[in-house]
Inverse folding.
């Protein structure tokens, strides 16, 4: 375990209800009733839309099946209008980060509560963080109104989650926990929660393709990682992924590629975080980034930004975008160093320290 923060800290933790059980999707009607919701808008992809509609029954007044990645502002505005026209008093999001993110964009302006049923390990369902993309730039913020009031974790929904999607999604969750471990406002509580998330996710990752219990374990880890992220400040890793998201790169895959490189970049300035990750991987702390990169290679997960569609001539703009606004990070955030990090991530090279 890392050294806990000093005795002086401020810890914020939102109130929320979490249900974790096989078949939790079937609790949607009871959980919306519990919140007093009678006119619900559902955001659910084609795979789960029918069952969601059946469970909600007469409570459902309008539905969206095509949530788009990174929440384009055009879709956010259209769905806000759709929900307002239907006089929806609540939102149900059944899906991954795109579905939950779209629900958050609607709640941000309409102020109606969300019940979330995640079908990936994104962790967005546990946070007050929202994001909306416009003209190639992804803008993010925090607002309590977008945090789902109730989260239903249904491990049975992950039984057919393809490994090619499940593995990057788990790396996405892992990134939340890693950044919480070196956040400037980390607390004893966030260290414990994030550390447990790291151990659960890394322990589950090699078995995701074949072991249902590993998928359930990763889901528990994703819950914890989202909770840790919600109580801490995001740093270089998330800033990089938000800039890349504005360019349309796959969110989970970008997290998978970038995380080992950022961990190596920050390892010297945040040895306690590196130690937690490395220990879970059976390696010394200084090799945390390398070990995580090797795990991604072993699992045939994405390891090169160029494979995600990022042009090499965009790297300079990405580096400048990362430095466009100040934010906390354990190691100094300098354009030359960030550009070198991006070069390694673009080529799929071994992660290097600052």
């Amino acid at each position: 375990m890392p050294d806990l923060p000093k005795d002086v800290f401020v810890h914020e933790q939102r109130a929320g209800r979490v249900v974790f059980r096989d078949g939790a999707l079937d609790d949607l009607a009871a959980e919306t009733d519990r919140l007093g919701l009678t006119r619900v808008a559902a955001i659910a992809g084609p795979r789960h839309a029918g069952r969601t509609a059946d469970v909600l029954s007469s409570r459902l007044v309008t539905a969206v099946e095509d949530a788009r990645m990174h929440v384009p502002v055009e879709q956010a505005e259209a769905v806000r209008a759709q929900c307002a026209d239907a006089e929806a008093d609540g939102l149900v999001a059944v899906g991954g980060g795109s579905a939950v993110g779209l629900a958050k964009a609607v709640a941000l302006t309409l102020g109606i509560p969300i019940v979330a049923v995640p079908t990936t390990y994104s962790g967005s369902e546990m946070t007050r963080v929202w994001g909306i993309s416009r003209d190639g730039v992804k803008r993010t913020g925090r607002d309590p109104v977008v945090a789902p009031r109730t989260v239903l974790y249904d491990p049975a929904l992950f039984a057919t989650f393809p490994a090619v999607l499940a593995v990057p999604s788990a790396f996405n969750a892992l990134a939340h926990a890693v950044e919480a471990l070196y956040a400037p406002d980390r607390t004893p509580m966030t260290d414990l929660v994030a550390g447990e998330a790291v151990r659960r996710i890394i322990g589950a990752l090699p078995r995701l393709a074949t072991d249902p219990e590993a998928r359930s374990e990763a889901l528990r880890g994703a819950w914890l990682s989202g909770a840790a992220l919600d109580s801490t400040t995001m740093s270089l890793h998330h800033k990089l992924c938000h800039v890349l998201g504005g360019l349309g790169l796959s969110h989970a895959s970008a997290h998978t590629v970038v995380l080992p490189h950022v961990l190596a970049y920050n390892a010297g300035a945040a040895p306690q975080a590196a130690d937690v990750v490395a220990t879970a991987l059976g390696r010394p702390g200084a090799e945390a980034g390398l070990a995580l990169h090797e795990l991604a290679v072993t699992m045939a997960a994405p390891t090169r930004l160029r494979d995600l569609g990022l042009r090499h001539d965009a790297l300079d703009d990405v580096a400048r975008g990362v430095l466009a606004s100040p934010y906390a990070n354990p190691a100094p955030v300098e354009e030359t160093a960030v550009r070198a990090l991006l070069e390694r991530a673009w080529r799929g090279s071994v992660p290097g320290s600052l």
About this structure: The longest helix spans residues 163-181. The beta strands are 17-20, 40-44, 60-64, 90-95, 114-118, 129-134, 137-142, 150-153. The chain has a mean pLDDT of 95. The first strand starts at residue 17 and ends at 20.
